[in-house]
Amino acid sequence: MWLSRNDDAPRFEYPAHQWARLLGFDSPDTAGARRVQQALRWLDEQAFVRLQHRQGASSAIHLLSDAGTGRPYQAPGLAMKRLAVKAQREEHLYVQLPAGLWTKGWISDLSGAAVAMYLVLLHERRGEDKTVWLSPRIGRERYDLSDETRRKGLNELAQHQLVSVRRRPVHQGLFEDHFRSRNVYELNPEDLDRYEPGEQHPWF
Fold first, then answer.
1. CB neighbours (10 Å) of residue 7?
2. For the residues 84-98, what does the mean pLDDT come to?
């Protein structure tokens, strides 16, 4: 989807070893290419892409809706402009990730749990520069994430210095004298472009 930009019905014909090099996989001509082919088969089975097999050439990849419906892909920015009814536009709301997620190698270094939690935090920010609180209940009910995935992903993001974690006091109630505290998370998406995995961020 990153490569599709604002194109409708995008199609790609790159060989698997080129995808493997783009993603920074080890042994891109062998094991890396197999990882790409396995991932593409899964995406095809789940109706996120449609693979068009071509004799003597790489399969053409037709990008489909990211909702897994099998419908043709629509660039969300263009869809938002076309649709006037708010209820119809809800399906196409999206968060935008910096290119550094791929070009700096983060996509290979982060686990699935960390990527999932990064997307959740971006969504919870709603495009604003603010801290985010994410309760276990919200993780389960809104994003269908287990408590283990939520904890693992947030801890990994903190270890990579992609989020900062702070404690914020929360008053118990009008007639309570004591406070409890909870973790809030702050992220700066531009850091994915500025730094590579393992590089120390000066503001930490």
1. 13
2. 67
| Residues 6 or more apart in contact with residue 169 via CB below 8 angstroms | 179, 180, 181
* pLDDT at residue 201 is higher than 70: no
Report how far residue 99's alpha carbon sits from residue 120's, in angstroms, rounded to the nearest whole number. Answer: 18
Model pTM score: 0.65
Dist. CA 163–CA 170, nearest whole Å: 21
The residue behind tokens 């660039």 is 75
Query: Between the CA of residue 76 and those of 64, 121, 201, what are the distances in Å?
Result: 12, 20, 32
Closest CA to 100 of 191, 27, 35, 164: 191
Domain coverage including residue 70: 11-90
Give a yes or no: residue 200 inside a domain: no
- Give me the pLDDT at residue 116, please: 93
Among 90, 117, 148, identify where a domain stops: 90
**Crossing angle, helix 147-159 and helix 112-125, to 10 degrees?**
90
How many domains does the chain divide into?
A: 2
